[in-house]
Design a protein that fits this description.
mainly alpha; 466 residues; 83% helix
Length: 466
Amino acid sequence: MEKSAAQLTAKDEAFRSFALQDNMWHVIFQVCAPLALYQSLNQIFKMLDTMMAAHISAESISTVAYLSQINMTLAAIGGGLAVGASLKISEAYGAGDYELVKSRVSSLFGLCALLSIAILLFILPFTTQFLRLANTPEEMIALGSQYFIVELLGMIISFFNNVYIAIERARGNSKRILYLNLLTIAIKLILTASFVYILRSGITMIAVATILSQLVILAAAFINMRDQNNAFGFSLKSIRFKGRVTTPMIVLSIPVIAEKIAFSLGKVVVNSMSTVYGALTVGALGISNTIGGMTTVPQNGFQDGGAAIISQNLGANNPQRALDAFKKILIINVIIGAIGYIVTIGFLDAISTFFAGDDTVFATHIARIYYFEAMACIPLGINAAVMALLYGFGYTKLTLLINFSRVFVFRMPVLWALQTFTNLGTESVGIVMMVSNILTGVLAAAVAAVMLKKIYRQTNTPPVII
């Protein structure tokens, strides 16, 4: 192979050999375990953030829960781009094409800059109108419009941070991601606690604390990517918005972006539909999702890391090893799901009280919703493993199908039916979450069965025994 102008560091070269040759159990735990811990810590931070918002008022926590879903719909654009594009970076990394790695890394940051400009020009000046378009209750707009504006500014920082984290994930720097996240969380919690408990500020300052803490990761990105000779360094000269550099990244990312937008938008609609049960139910649903995240978030950590491992090994033309990675991730995620169900249900009363404080009605709402939602801990683990397989092999249109079905086929129609044909109250929301998430796991398993047969046939790869 002709020597590329863009070079790897000794550490990056060593990780590439490790990912392509070492024992797969070892590779998965070294890459994915820090990511699972990183995402779990993020979830814990969100839980503490929610608790602090609850200290302000129950209305504040419901507003934060509602507006956060709208924010996540917009953030899905940058998140989907980071996921899809980083897989093509991993593929080029596995194939040993380091010049292509550098061009894709630089171009991905360029795409994020264009996306940020679009947010600033077309959404930020029209915040109130945008929230009304999303069917946000007027009382939540009055309480949370400034919060949402600050969150939008923070989301722009997150665009770049997500790309940087995705790139570090592709090169195996999971521990660096973990350490940066620990520092970010510490700063965030100190600032939020100061704003809420000492200065007695409102929810807007919670968003300000998020921005200030996220600047830590942005600073790390500037520092760690300034080497223009490194394949993973940023260079203006390497930005290409066409050809084999950007086109494959965009093509792979479009279904991922659509999938994430559809999923987040669907949750916004479900939140809107749930307002018929009262604002406390909306807040309880958000907290129930947060409790569920104690299980699904580490599963998603193994999904993200696993997709990168699969993509790297495919780039190195080793599909059997890529399939081996998927099957081991499936085992791990099922185990996490089982443990998560046992722990969260076993301590559900304590967890609900933790979030609701002295509000026993709110605590009851939380417990009634999560009792049903918890039933899907294992099916969602299966779904996350299948997502890793489909992302890694580039079948992002199928991930779009699964997640679109999760919200628009298995969730919204079921909630409508329960509201129309039954007299059930708050528990309807929990039943909907249970039904949609279990059926999503079943659909993902069916899709995986079909695609594995196709992959075995196309690659002449024998089935892998775990």
